Amino acid sequence: MLILQSPLTRKLSAFVTLSDSDLETLARFHRRRRSFLSGHEVIHEGQKTQSAFILAEGWACSYKILPDGDRQIVDIQIPGDFLGLRSVLFRTTDHSVEAVTPIEASEVLASDILNGFATSPRLATAVLWAASRDEAMVVEHLVNLGRRSAEERMAHFLLELGARLRLIGISDKTGFACPLTQYHLADALGLSAVHVNRVLRHLREEGLVTFQKGRVVFDDFAGLVTLAGFDTDYLDQEGPLLS
What we know:
- By secondary structure, the protein is of the alpha+beta class.
- Helix content is about 40%, strand content about 20%.
- It has 8 helices and 11 strands.
- The strands form 3 sheets. Strands 1-8-3-6 form a 4-stranded antiparallel sheet. The chain has a 4-stranded antiparallel sheet with strand order 2-7-4-5. The chain has a 3-stranded antiparallel sheet with strand order 9-11-10.
- A hairpin with a 5-residue loop joins strand 4 and strand 5.
- The two termini are about 20 Å apart.
């Protein structure tokens, strides 16, 4: 089954062993495949919608625009992530989503999700796990912005991305391909682009991590973990809890 190779299947399988019935429901979630160019606003804050997307290929970011025009990126989405899942239940979308790279995503209607959950309660539990994991990441991002130094923020952010990408098989402890610009990093970490450049240079000079030419290389993984105080427990991806 092609659905076995889906990043979402790999991600949810970290929590629960999916049955054939669950996989069939997931396959139905992927029926409406759409393509978006880099920079396209897939979801706009304030729109009234009854659908979400499952990111299959490429990267996206969720963000809020402040009255003065500044942008705060609240999360980076990678393959296997939902885009705008809250939109299925909320009357109005509370954030925007933009394609960072060209992306492939499957549109999932509210009826698809609710009917699927009714027939596949284990799948519903797995998606609830994924949503809870996203919430745990938001908590860490708040700690990043409020209490960690710029170097610690960057280290934690890059380590978290690496761990998330390893879950779907496109990263290892040596590093990962990363399409984010210094402006994306600035908007995600509450820094200026100039400050991001200084931080990355300092981390590189310290022999911890190199981010150049679209690739993050962990030069000293253990040292970076120590600097960030990084603990993967909040990502909860050590293996299925339900079989």
